[in-house]
Amino acid sequence: MVGELNRLYSRGFKASHVNWVSAQIPQETIEVSTRIRYNSSEVPARLTPLDENTVSVEFKEPQRSVTPGQSAVFYDGDVVLGEL
Asked: Which of 30, 74, 75, 79 is the most buried (most CB within 10 A)?
């Protein structure tokens, strides 16, 4: 499908099946760094828990090509908080 370039950008996403690696499940919105592909840079985002394994992520700046099925990792500095 052909479309406009700006349609490739997303302000955020919702994800389920989060694996909380080195932290307790957040109970409120927290600031994190998020990597949405294994070879991408970390970007600042706000992570809001919706239930025990579902989150809403809102990027500080829209990100290109956020697609279903790709990985995402959430960091607090050098600490991995969770992944999917």
From this structure: 74
